[in-house]
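[agent] plan:
  1. take the single chain provided in the ticket
  2. run structure prediction with default settings
  3. attach structure tokens to the ticket
  4. add a short note for the reviewer (M.T.)
[agent] executing step 1
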Amino acid sequence: MNLPEEQAAMRQRTRQEDATERLYFSVESIAKRWDCSKDKVSRIVKKYRGRAGFMDLAITTKRKRKYAILRIHPARLKEIEGDLC
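[agent] step 2 finished; step 3 output follows
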């Protein structure tokens, strides 16, 4: 693969990642939206995990803790915000 092909592939991956971000919210983006910590957001949405509208990508490592990537659909986020208000 030459340099222009690599750059084109990188731009395509970036566009796909941007599209995913628009479809789902990350814990970090919700924390900014609510003006609180990521830990607080994780604790609040914990009881909603496992329902439709959540992408929970858990990565198991050799360490004691597992690493999780959580993405929340905008409709589910509105539901959570409605429950909090």
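[agent] step 4 note for reviewer: The first strand starts at residue 25 and ends at 26.
[agent] ticket updated
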